Amino acid sequence: MNEELKIMKKKYGEKMAHFCRDNFPTILETDGLLLKLLLDNFEPSHDLYEDIIEQNKETEFKNYIYSLVDVEKDNKIKVIKTPEELLSEVGYNLYECKCEEDIQKFKKYYASGEELCTFNGGRLNRCYVFFAVKKNASDIKRKNFPNPQRQDTYGTSVLSIQFTKDKSHTLSIKNRYNHTVNNPDSTYSNNLDNIIDGLTESFSEYYGLIQQHSNGKFELRDYVRASDGKYYKYNLEIDNVYYCPNNIIIDNSEVKRYDKEKYLIFDYFILNLETKKIKKHIRENDGFIHSLGKIKKITITNRKDYKELLIYNEDGFIITINLDKDNNIIMVNNPYIRGIKENYLFYNRKCQRIYLSNVERISYDFMSDNNDSLEEIFLPKCETIGNDFLYFNNKLKSISLPNVTFIGSNFLWANEKIESVSLPKCREIKDNFLYYNFVCKKIDMPRLEKVGANFMTENGKLETINLPSLVSIGDDFLYDNDKIKTIYLPNVTHIGNNFLPENMIIEDVYLPKCCEVKHDFLYFDIACKKLDMPMLEKTGKNFMYKNRELEIINLPSLVSIQDSFLYNNDKVKILYLPNLISIINFKDFKVIKYLYAPKLERVSDISLLKDIPYCYTPLLKEYCNTEDLIFDCEQLSLELKDNLNRKSR
């Protein structure tokens, strides 16, 4: 191995040196040329070869290296159309933002928690900002993509195209999934021609935005090209800031190197080893820093497979943090902190285990960006949890929170693998609890009293549910569940919209204390045969809509009926409604044989009653067809009620 290859081996690893020897013999004939090409274009890293092989980029890498010395090659596309015309061909409208107000107009397209940092203000001071919006963007819904991919239909339906105002005009293409998917600031690998051929040159010609490093076509996942023309491997990207191994941060294409004797960069934190202070490169607060307390001493030990960072604080506690080879946090053991502040390790993506033995309170956005790593969490004393706890985590299979009493919105949102949830003391849960979970079969929360919207929405496996203390239920409760056959909620009084809709197998529903249900109660639940709700006073629209098996219904307290009550039901013959006062926009009484409603005084269309053979409505005498047989009708109604109660029991 000649001297040039020896240097390559030292800087890029032995396998890369062998690869270069086998694939670039012609370039190696010019002494030092290949080494210069590598050093000018790739920050030294022993991972480079492995990443090229893993991503099947050998051919592209070879072509790229050869293109650097092929001075005669010219593949420029003749530009005829403007950026607006080109983007229109692939369904986009292009807008240039010339003031802050122009930028804010596009915030409406972003889901809560996924807004671009661009909307925080000041971006026009250093960037030219454009938005490309799909012509049907408003019709592309976030909820239809439970497993977001950076370049799926929703993610690319709104693109922010930004060029830096320096000479390099470094490009960033930001999509609609800000911080939800990996590297959203590099959509289409920051190559405009990946959207439509010729777009790079079109921006160059019509807007004068000539990218200094736009000619190279080589792309490698988890690598970014900086303003010095080199590709750098990065661990994490946050708002166009890249955190790289070897104490390097690339901020809007500018490379910043930190002295390893004075600093340790781990995850997205900068630890000053001399002053023993820790800070972030980004602006947002992060509860992780607060959780360490005031640092007194730091030790760093290299273990076999990880680096151990011990932080001794002035309160006498030792906090253990394990780092992988690239200085990502993979484990935290913190016995010190009792209250976790907001955004704790918000952007961390590699932590596998976390132990917080004395934590009692957790604020919002706890590890919300840790998608596929966290496998174990220990919170034995925790009592309250804020919004977005482990939002988008998709690795955790079980969780036990023995003392938690309150949980905010989006708890373990879109976790598809969790099988076991233990919350024995929980009393209240806000919206989107276990939204998009597909494997949990049993829920047992003996003290739960109140749940918000979307409780276990789109859970296709849940078979057993035990919520004996539940009082109030929000919208879309168990929406899209088709495994539950029986539901017994003895203390529920209020139910929101879309309660258990489209469950095709549920047969028995018992809600003895429920007073009110909103729209679409048991909508399209075609198998339910018995419904017992003795305290129900008020229903919304579409109550038991298109249920064709219901035979027994007990609603003695019902006061008001709304549109599509029991619509398309073929088997309910008897309606004993002694407290019914009004019928609003009701459509279909065709199968009813007996209606006992002595207090009924308002009907939106009174002709609906004319086809009922036995109708006792004395306050509407013109349609009380048993008027001369009041005694017999009342006697019959009592017999029917008694029969109904016997069947219900």
Q: How many individual β-strands?
A: 42
Number of helices: 11
* Class computed from helices, strands and strand pairing: alpha/beta
Strand fraction equals 15-25%
Helix content: 10-25%
Description:
The chain has 649 residues and is α/β, with parallel strands linked by helices. Among the domains are: 3-67, no CATH class; 83-249, no CATH class; 496-507 and 522-649. It is built from 11 helices and 42 strands. The strands form 11 sheets. It has a 9-stranded parallel β-sheet with strand order 18-20-22-24-26-28-30-32-34. It has a 6-stranded mixed β-sheet with strand order 14-15-16-17-19-21, with no helix packed on it. It has a 4-stranded antiparallel β-sheet with strand order 1-2-3-4. Helix 1 crosses helix 2 (14-23). The protein is elongated, with a radius of gyration of 32 Å. The relative contact order is 0.04. Mean pLDDT is 87; it is low at 71-79 and 627-634.
Short description:
By secondary structure, the protein is α/β, with parallel strands linked by helices.
Secondary-structure map:
Elements: H1 3-12, H2 14-23, H3 25-28, H4 33-41, H5 48-54, H6 58-67, H7 83-89, E1 92-97, H8 100-104, E2 127-134, E3 158-164, E4 171-174, H9 199-207, E5 223-225, E6 231-233, E7 236-238, E8 241-244, E9 248-251, E10 254-257, E11 263-266, E12 269-272, E13 277-280, H10 287-291, E14 295-302, E15 307-313, E16 318-323, E17 329-333, E18 339-340, E19 353-355, E20 361-362, E21 376-378, E22 384-385, E23 398-400, E24 406-407, E25 420-422, E26 428-429, E27 442-444, E28 450-451, E29 464-466, E30 472-473, E31 486-488, E32 494-495, E33 508-510, E34 516-517, E35 530-532, E36 552-554, E37 560-561, E38 574-576, E39 582-583, E40 594-596, E41 602-603, E42 614-616, H11 630-648
Parallel strand pairs: 17-19, 18-20, 19-21, 20-22, 22-24, 23-25, 24-26, 26-28, 27-29, 28-30, 30-32, 31-33, 32-34, 33-35, 35-36, 37-39, 38-40, 39-41, 40-42
Antiparallel strand pairs: 1-2, 2-3, 3-4, 5-6, 7-8, 8-9, 9-10, 11-12, 12-13, 14-15, 15-16, 16-17
Helix pairs in contact: 1-2
